[in-house]
Design brief:
Elements (H helix, E strand, L loop, with lengths): L6 H20 L5 H8 L3 H7 L3 H22 L7 H18 L1 H5 L6 H23 L9 H16 L12 H14 L6
Amino acid sequence: MGRALRADAERSVRAILKAAERVLADDAGTSMGQIAEAAGVTRITVHRRFANRQALLDALAVSAIHQLAEAIETARPGSAPALVALYRVAANVLRVKSAWRFSLTHSTPHSDDAAAIWADINAGTLELLARAQREGLLDPATDLEWTRQVYYALLSEALNRPGEKQDSTEDPDALAILVIDTLLHGGGPHG
């Protein structure tokens, strides 16, 4: 956003982003006026902070991806044993993804800021998978890029399980176990 905002302006931006995430998750066609109403601000305030709908979507994406990056970092993927880090990262990612469903799944192009954060996340994930490979959790011949893509798909599918409500509050730790066990063992026996 360039220069720092005053505290009241920063609060209104946070309120707008939070409301936008909530209402857009329910209806991707929600208008800027409806977002303003949900945020408890005027439409003029929304347009003062975000020049247009795309600027708002870009800000949502950057905010959500930044939260995702922070959640991954709190899992200590570089210092915890690979298996522990994989579980922690998965649980933290699932928590953030459930809170930012719209922003992390809509298919608009990423801004440069969002793309840079995604690049860091992807590189960090590959580093963690390489460490898992060195620690014997993954076969030495495993294609790590493919494994990264499968890992991401499993994380997404964990939140969209058939029969589960979209607003499901299923335990992210239990879902993380499901994701990592599936990643490491597939559907085969665990033994």
